[in-house]
## 1
Amino acid sequence: MQITLPCAQCGRPAAAFTVHAAGEGDGLWRDHDRIERAGFMGVVIKFGSLESLAQLFETLRRHDYETLRRLDADFIAFHCWECGKDYCEQCWRIGPPEFDDGFYDCTMGICPAGHEQMVDD
Ligand SMILES: [Zn+2]
Ligand SMILES: [Zn+2]
């Protein structure tokens, strides 16, 4: 199961999501059911039961951002909540990593319309 969400500004992929069942693919997480987000701020992996991952995937496909926000707002950080649009990493102006007491805290980004939002936590 794979879905790519396009950037509302330039049409390039904003992020691609793939659901892998345990045993599929390669790498460290091979033995776990998981969903991978690629193309935005590196690769982010989220684990869960296949059922809950399939549900998350369906929600992405329906562009049901209100539900996604409740499930895991950080997972769709490429979506500007003020614009209600998806933007790719090139269209967000992504700032430097911010540190709190020497520990990585978060990264802020500014969307093409000038809204500032956390893009990585
Ligand atoms: Zn915006
Ligand atoms: Zn773009």
## 2
Amino acid sequence: MKRIGIIGCGTIGTGIAEFIQARLKAKARVVALCDIDLKKANFLSKKIKPRPVVTSMDNLIKKSDLVIEAAGVNVSAAIAKKAVLRKKSVLIMSTGGLLKNPGLIKKSNVYIPSGAICGIDGLKAASIGRIKSVSLTTRKPLKGLKGSIDVDKIKKETVVYSGTAQDAVRRFPKNINVAATLSLSGLGPKKTRVRIITSPKYTRNTHEVEIEGEFGRIFTRTENLPSKSNPKTSQLAIFSALAKLKEVI
Ligand SMILES: NC(=O)c1ccc[n+]([C@@H]2O[C@H](COP(=O)([O-])OP(=O)(O)OC[C@H]3O[C@@H](n4cnc5c(N)ncnc54)[C@H](O)[C@@H]3O)[C@@H](O)[C@H]2O)c1
């Protein structure tokens, strides 16, 4: 029975805990929860049977075989490092935090779900040969960018960012983990190009990935519906974490 600890009890953390309880209970159990907002951890712990302990990050890592990070880019690298040091497996959602420590994803027990985009498998295969370019064009509804830009000023389709994945993650840390996931799987954060476009008319988080290299060309387009409880997080991102869990547990 794998002991699972979840850091970050918001939309993704809750989805993962409920999935383990409903669909993976023969193989895994959520034993510990951690959140800077204690109320959230306590609320989630009441939904899970047997009830997981609510504890500190360090204690959670000690108690778990597999640590799940669903907290934020400011803590994801520290969590991955601590877990690796203690020889625990770790699944990272806030991939933007790993850009400064890209070596971490080379560790065999650090798992990165594909997130809200398609094409990561093809990009990894293409990376065996020469890659010319990797670009991501993300279209987000205004409410998905709230807090990162002044959404009230935007009245028509507007390009709000064009540049490297590295700067995109710095300027939109809550919105663009897909850019980090893409760059960690291919050309790196300085060479992966990102455009973020918004409009009052958009209703879906849409990601277009274009990859060119000696293999030819890949183009993928993913039209995501936002998750019910967090408009910044696409439902597919949650499903990608659950699919990765099914694979590794
Ligand atoms: N890889 C991807 O494609 C992808 C897609 C969507 C979201 N994400 C990332 O996954 C993370 C979780 O997303 P979500 O939708 O569940 O967000 P959320 O806001 O619903 O939940 C995050 C939770 O983490 C807690 N938290 C924040 N900082 C913390 C810290 N330092 N220690 C402990 N807990 C902390 C918050 O209190 C909150 O309960 C975010 O960083 C988000 O950017 C990644």
